[in-house]
Design a protein that fits this description.
Layout (H helix, E strand, L loop, with lengths): L5 H21 L3 H12 L5 H8 L8 H27 L3 H4 L18 H15 L3 E2 L5 E2 L1 H4 L18 E7 L2 E5 L4 H10 L4 E10 L11 E11 L4 H16 L4 E9 L2 E11 L2 E11 L1 H6 L8 E8 H9 L12 H4 L3
The structure holds adenosine-5'-[phenylalaninyl-phosphate] (FA5).
């Protein structure tokens, strides 16, 4: 027969734990703390020791549970003692270090995508709604893709070394270059795929232009290409108008001015009117039959249109930026506005 029931034992333990906690909390100096330690944790006559002896008087079945509670209580009182020791060692410092919840918090600063990256993604989204798939091409190009396949012959001034970044690396006899336009991607896609085609390509291009408010030696273009049966200039204008209205918001007028590009016929300059001002955004036209032939398409079976716009120019227009060089000055005060 057990002399002590489990309930009695547990009540004993809880009582001791509460008393120890109160005594240690109240200890304001080393002497009081040491007295509490001896009273509760003392190895010979501590009160915990006394309770431990009671364990022997419990029924065998209750011993594991009782033992566990005993160990928990001992660990808790020991931890409390360590905390009091730390509190007393730290002196008054601990009270002063407590947190002043009335102070304003430190604001967390979030970054965001560069306005040109945001513009690129937005353009891709808008064009996707018209079924234009986003594709990319290399920035280091050969002369076939940058010029020849686009009907820009050897004598054309656009190939002038002063107007291009030619590299000291050649493929065959022709030096490679940093592409001067994204029209290269038109060729790369048409060489690999059969019509119908709707693609859009946004990426960096390079020209040794002197930097000013509307020019930068590295800039981005958005190239669009659609090749399908029965395509006309009217489709081109509708797509550009939809694009401009979606991108800039509101009703944007699109104007074509006659122009010349070796790879489109007819060719036009694309101006957009928004907020009362006309701005040149890029070039466009119907894909020249010579280009369709160069990539193995039948110009009698399909027609297509292509356009190329300056991304910095359309971004500047949208955000009211007067000088595109601001996009590349890395001034956080400027960039965080977007
Ligand atoms: C072209 O590059 C043609 N590939 C566009 C094209 C595509 C025509 C498809 C027909 C069919 P252009 O050289 O005009 O065209 O350049 C197009 C646009 O790029 C310009 O209107 C302008 O918005 C932008 N651009 C040109 N040079 C710079 C520069 N240095 N810095 C910033 N933007 C520029």
């Amino acid at each position: 027969m057990a002399d002590v029931s489990l309930d009695e034992f547990l009540a004993e333990i809880e009582g001791l734990r509460a008393e120890a906690s109160a005594a240690l909390d109240a200890a304001t100096d080393e002497v009081a703390m040491e007295a509490a330690r001896i009273e509760f944790l003392g190895a010979r006559s501590g009160r915990l020791k006394a309770i431990q002896k009671m364990l022997g008087s419990l029924a065998a079945a209750d011993k594991p549970a009782a033992g566990k509670h005993f160990n928990d209580a001992k660990a808790a009182i020991t931890a409390l003692l360590a905390a009091v020791q730390e509190r007393l060692a730290g002196g008054t410092a601990t009270t002063i270090e407590s947190i002043d919840v009335t102070l304003p918090g430190e604001p967390v600063r979030f970054g965001h995508l560069h306005p040109i990256t945001q513009t690129i993604r937005r353009v891709q989204e808008i064009m996707a709604r018209l079924g234009f798939e986003s594709v990319t091409g290399p920035e280091v190009e050969d002369q076939w893709h940058n010029f020849e396949a686009l009907a820009i012959g050897t004598e054309h001034p656009a190939r002038d070394p002063l107007d291009n970044f030619y590299l000291a690396v050649a493929r065959g006899a022709d030096p490679l270059l940093l592409r001067s336009q994204t029209s290269t991607v038109q060729i790369r896609v048409m060489e690999k795929r059969k019509p119908p085609l709707r693609i859009v390509s946004l990426g960096r291009v390079y020209r040794p232009d002197t930097a000013d408010a509307t020019h930068y030696p590295m800039f981005h273009q958005v190239e669009g290409l659609l090749v399908e049966q029965g395509t006309t200039m009217a489709h081109l204008k509708s797509v550009l108008r939809f694009f401009a209205s979606s991108f800039l918001g509101g009703d944007v007028k699109v104007r074509f001015r006659p122009s010349f590009f070796p790879f489109t016929e007819p060719s036009v300059e694309v101006d957009m009117e928004w907020g009362g001002r006309w701005i040149e955004m890029g070039g466009a036209g119907m894909v020249d039959p010579a280009v369709l032939e160069a990539v193995g398409y039948d110009p009698d079976a399909v027609t297509g249109f292509a356009f190329g716009l300056g991304v910095e120019r359309i971004a500047a227009r949208k955000y009211g930026v007067a000088d595109i060089r601001d996009f590349y000055r890395n001034d956080v005060r400027f960039l965080q506005q977007f």
